[in-house]
Structure formats: structure tokens, C-alpha cells
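Database export, one record per block. Field names are fixed; values are copied verbatim from the stored entry.
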Amino acid sequence: MGSQEVSTVDWQGKHVTVAGLGVSGIPAARALHERGALVTVVNDGDDARARAQAAELEALGITVRLGDGATLPPSTELVVTAPGWQPDKPLFLAAAEAGVPVWGDVELAWRLRGDNGRKAAPWLAVTGTNGKTTTVRMLASILEAAGLRTAAVGNIGVSLLDAVLGEREYDVLAVELSSYQLHWAPSLRAHSAAVLNLAPDHLDWHGSMEAYAADKGRVYEGNTVACVYNVADPATEDLVREADVEEGCRAIGFTLGAPGPSQLGVVDGILVDRAFVANRQKQAQELAEVTDVTPPAPHNIANALAAAALARAFGVEPAAVRDGLRAFRPDAHRIEHVADIGEVAYVDDSKATNTHATEASLAAYDSIVWIAGGLAKGATFDELVIGAAKRLRGVVLMGADRALIHEALTRHAPEVPVVDLDRTDTGAMSEAVAQAAALARPGDTVLLAPACASMDMFTNYNKRGEAFADAVRARADESA
């Protein structure tokens, strides 16, 4: 299927099983039911919330089976799954044995785009281990500065189904896609796409790094104009080489150094484009200054370059790139400056839930008191500690798997003082901030970049970041 083609499916009377209630399952069930499909929703859980959701769907005439997400209902012709359901679940094994296709919410949205009679908006897609949300929101800001009707959608909180079926008409969509979503999106064909970086993550779901990378690489399949890759991460360029793209689609690199032809990069504090110019062998187009990016940390400059590359692939003028980047502000808990107390900066990067994100965060500062720990998700920390050791003034550890980080510090940075908080209650954050403050010296940065998931102590990384910010502000009030 070509990039601009819209798939038409006769849903009337089609038996569709929707796997999972929730933010993707419920809209999918409703959309399919409205188009005449015979929908059965299956869900592993059977709690009060699930029963309330089921009652709403059953009132519409949708069948719901709670507490049984493993069995494939008879007569199923298609399974539409929530992205988090693992590929080895019995439901999917049964579907494969019966020759029943499995789509994710992204695949369904892709198939239904244009179904409301409007022209289907092209997608500019972003994936990667880290930086997806920031890059997509930067991209949307740039597109808006160009006067285009757009939205940041996908794995970013706004449902793709809502975007493609809603009342609002778009010129282009900035789409964040997770590896889970890409796994279940076989016919997705973006206008242009970027893989920001690749590092081990979600390997329990994918089974191997190779499978994880292959799912990320699906974002390049069928691209029309540009496959954007990270020059500093050769694995992303390898995925471009392996992709089956439309004739004329170009490989466009981004780099924090001076760009070569068909690349975007940085020269003397200026973001420049040597890809979308008339003579890329000899010309470079100024797009913005490094200081137009907030915050101007190296990994965030990389995000800005990737967003700029996708926007330029869509024909956006340089001035809109600059204006969009100037207007953009990152979400909370992403390298967020909380306060300065006694010439020490306190920075919240609770979103750094894996080692790759934390490596980028630590690289942004020269002298750091690092607050880390939580659920390791199978990660190891030796490489992270080796790379950061010279920047560490001290470390405060908390959370269930803090011992893994402590062991890596003992091996590779034995001279760095470590405070090990033997507690996993939410109040531990106040003590962590106090201990970090005691280690810090003027000019240092106290950085919450946990390298771990938060669920051992907090509901999510947002709550962890809020606890850090609250503890810092309370300390600022005391010292005022």
C-alpha cells in the first residue's frame, strides 16, 4: 500500500475481538461497533473499574468478557489489541494458529484515516528509546509555527483514533510511536520518520535486542520523503538501510557536530541544514541557534535536529523551525530546573527511567550529585557509571534495586561518596534531597535522573518528580 492510499474495509458484520479495556481498547471497540462490526472485548482483569467500563460498552450492544483475555472467541476474523499486550499471550498464539490477523490501535487508526470523508492527513512519525515525546512536541510546535493544522498524537496521550476520526481536520500529524505500537502496525506507511536512538529497553516484552530494534525499524517501512537517523547511533542508520521505502526517499542524518551533505547538525552554536537545500554539497541553511532550544542540553539539541529534519522534509521554511523551537517548552520532569539554593542547581529528570536516558542527562552537567534508583527492569549500570564517574560529586541511592547501582559504583567509581537510603517509602525523597544537599558544593547540580522505573515507590515518574520538586521547594523556603 502506498503512503497516501487509504485502506477501505467493509466492517459490517465482521467479527472483531478487541484485546484490553483502557485508553486504546475502549475507543477501538466503539469505533468498530459504529461501523457495523460485531465486537467482543476480552480483558484479563475483572475489577470494579473494568466492570464499570464493560457496562458502558454492553449498553451499546458490545460483548465484553472479563477475566478471560487468553481465549480467542469463536468466529473471530480480526484481533485489535492494546499495545502493551505481549506477543506471546495465548490469545495471539491462537490467532496465529487460526490465521487471524492482529492489529494494534495504530494500525486501526491508519486503516480508518480518511474514513470520515475528509482527506487523510500524512503522518510524520518518531520513535526511539528516549526523547520521543519531546521530539514530537517540538515537531508539532514547528509545524504550528508554519501555519499548519497539526497535533502531537500517538503514544503521547492523544489517541490516534480520536485524531483521525474526530471533527477537526489536520494538514499533518506529528506521531509518537512506541516499539509496542509498531510491532502491531504492519501496514503503517509514514510520509517521513525518525528513529532517535536505540538502547536496550523493554527486552522482557520483545524477547531480544534484535526483535526490539526490528520493531523500531518498522517506522521506516514505506516512507515517502525522508528516513531520519542519528549519526551518533549507527544502529539507526542500519535500520534505514534495511527498510523498504518508496522510490526517491532519502536517508537524512542528524549530528551534534558539523553536518555532511544530507545531514543536519551544529556549527558555531547554529543549527544548520545541509539536506533540504539546493546544493547540499556546498550550501548550508541556518535554522536556529542552540540558545533557541530549551533546555540546550546535548540530547535535547539532538531532539531539536530530528524534529527540524522531519519538518523540513515536509517543506517547512527555516524561519518556522526557529520560531517553533523558541516557542517550545518541555513537559514536566524532563531536565526541569526546579530551584537554585546556595549556588546549587536542583534539576528534575524523573522521566529518565532507563540507563540510556540517564546517560544523556548526566552528560548535560559538569559536577553532579546524582539521585538514582528504583526498579531496574533488568538493566545493568556499569557502562553508565564508567561514563559518568568523573562528573559525580556524590550519589544518593533509593528504591528497590539501588544495590545494583551501588555495586557498579563500587567497581568503577570507588572514590565517589554514596549515601544508600535503606527505605522505599515515598517520604524517602525528602531525605534523599537533604543528603544530596549535604554532598553538594557551590556550582554543583543535584540531579534526579533515576535510571530506573518508579513503581516500587511511586505511582509513576510524574509523582516521583513531584516529590523531588516538593522536597526542593520546601528546602528553598527554609533557606530563604
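Remark 1: Residues 116 and 230 are 37 Å apart (CA to CA).
Remark 2: The chain is about 35% helix and 20% strand.
End of record.
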